[in-house]
Amino acid sequence: MALLVQKYGGTSVGSAERIQAVARRVVAAADRGQKVCVVVSAMSHSTDELVDLAAQISSVPHPREMDMLLTSGERISMALLSMAIMELGREAISMTGSQAGIVTDTSHGRARIVEVRARRVLEALDEGKIVIVAGFQGVSTEYNITTLGRGGSDMTAVALAAELDADVCEIFTDVDGVFTADPRIVPEARQLHAVSYEEMLELSASGARVLQLRCVEYARNHGVLVHVRSSFNAEEGTWVREEDERMERAIISGIAHDTSEAKVTIVGVPDKPHVAARVFTPLAREGINVDMIVQNISTDGRTDISFTLPKDDLVRAKPLLDEVATGVGAREIQTDDSIGKVSLVGAGMKSHPGVAADMFEALGDAGINIEVISTSSIRISCIVRATDVEQAVKVVHKKFELPEEAVAREQHPATATDQIKALRPPQSDGEAAS
Ligand code: ASP
Ligand code: MG
After folding, report:
1. Parent domain of 132
2. Residue 14: which CATH number?
3. Read out DSSP for 401-412?
4. Which of 115, 184, 161 is nearest to 389 (CA)?
5. Number of the ligand 1 atom closest to the C-alpha atom of 136
6. Would 280 be classed as within a structural domain?
7. What helix, strand, coil percent values describe the chain, rounded to 5?
8. Whose CA is nearest to atom 9 of ligand 1?
9. Pocket of ligand 1, candidates 136, 158, 172: which has the most ligand atoms within 8 Å of its Cβ, to mutate?
10. Mean pLDDT across 293-299
11. Mean per-residue pLDDT for 201-225?
12. Position 262 in a domain
């Protein structure tokens, strides 16, 4: 019997009516003879509201209590959805992450799943019940309730899909799928029919908020077929799966942007062995994720090291960096939080020269200055002024003619014509942060 995991984001369960609509959709899938395990996010904005509440009580909320608080949002939606399904005459049972067997490590706020003990979920499915699991949460190996990082319900869904050996993990959201660029900036951006795990990883890591980065990694490692689609219509969305040669022919899949990072430059660092390790080890120990590291060639035995890190981590990083700078004898630390990153992603880049040059030309022609460049085999990222980000996304999208060509080539031949017709998604109200 086919088994389906469906995940509904915060906007999709944002009101009683929407929860009832989700219930109808879930029941319809079950009526087609499939076992259905549903993962829900908290109702729109409720996690943010809980974060705000905590901030009014404590400037540094205790991590354990914070996780206790935040996991309540998903409990509300799971119970309501379960009731709505029962109202439609089907048996349903809701489970917290802990009841569903999501076992994590002990790092509150960004726990990693170490094991999924899905016995209880499987038993309920075998009894013909629809199982509703609260996303974003688990229980640690020390029996505390943990959360999986913002957007973590995606992770719950993918992990359950892997463990239950689901045919597909459907991520229902408030946009139609993955687009060649943010449609709010580039109205002619097109929906992609499929992206490879690697491309989706790069897109998520570069600021595309449609799927949580960690869940893409998990899906790739466990070969989970993911289908990102709208909960407001019945259209096919975007498939995230193993790369095939059609994807490579497309050269470019999309452009992501990110204005959540800040740039740090350590000026006048002595150019000798071990200095970089001394700079980055304290940050790593604090769990601060640095990105885009560049070191210049040295003059007079000194060099500059620049890198980016999440703006939210700047406050924690600053004292560590000051200490490091004194320790290694650097001249000064400069921080800049008015930057933005624009990234071009595509599997076909591996075998097509000139992509970087074209991107730089598009930015140059628009008078946009590039401050830092970094690349992987399928991504080129440029740091520009934050105020230039939107324009940068537009001109790069135009340069690569992503509106027509790339997508046309990337489509399934059979569905190309339906897919190419303009698919304007509804305006997202930011499901990435429910
Ligand atoms: N409710 C959590 C958040 O807003 C988890 C999720 O929606 O995926 O981050
Ligand atoms: Mg999300």
Report:
1. 3-247+415-423
2. 3.40.1160.10
3. TIIIIIHHHHS-
4. 184
5. 5
6. no
7. 40, 25, 35
8. 150
9. 136
10. 88
11. 96
12. no
Domains held by the chain: number: 1
The SS3 assignment for 297 reads coil
Mode of pairing for the β-strands spanning 194-196 and 238-241: parallel
Taking only the tens place, the pLDDT of each residue in 50-90 is 999 999 999 999 999 999 999 999 999 999 999 999 999 99
Which of 91, 71, 227 lies closest to 152 in space, CA to CA?
71
Closest CA to 183 of 192, 170, 194, 196: 192
Q: Would residue 317 count as lying in a domain?
A: no
Strand 102-104's sheet: what is its strand order?
A: 113-116, 102-104, 137-140, 145-147
pLDDT at 315 over 50: yes
Pair type for strands 302-310 and 261-270: antiparallel
Q: Which ligand is nearest to the CA of 213?
A: 2
The angle formed by the CA atoms of residues 389, 376 and 267, to the nearest 5 degrees, is: 65
Residues 6 or more apart in contact with residue 52 via CB below 8 angstroms: none
Dihedral-angle region of residue 223 (phi above 0 means left; psi in -120 to 50 means alpha; beta otherwise): left
At 351, is the pLDDT very low, low, confident or very high (cuts 50, 70, 90)? confident
The token pair at 395 is 């001109």
Strands 145-147 and 137-140, sheet pairing: antiparallel
Find the mean pLDDT for residues 110-134. Answer: 97
Whether pTM > 0.70 for this model: the answer is: yes
Residue 415 pLDDT exceeds 90: no
| pLDDT confidence band for 132 (50 / 70 / 90) | very high
pLDDT-above-90 percentage for the chain: 83
How do beta strands 168-173 and 291-295 pair? unpaired
Pocket test for ligand 1, best of 44, 47, 429 (most atoms within 8 A of CB): 47
CA 41 to chain centre: 14
Residue 401 banded pLDDT, cuts 50, 70, 90: confident
Cα gap 27→23, rounded to integer Å: 6
Q: Is residue 389 part of a domain?
A: no
DSSP tally for the chain: helices H, then strands E: 14, 20
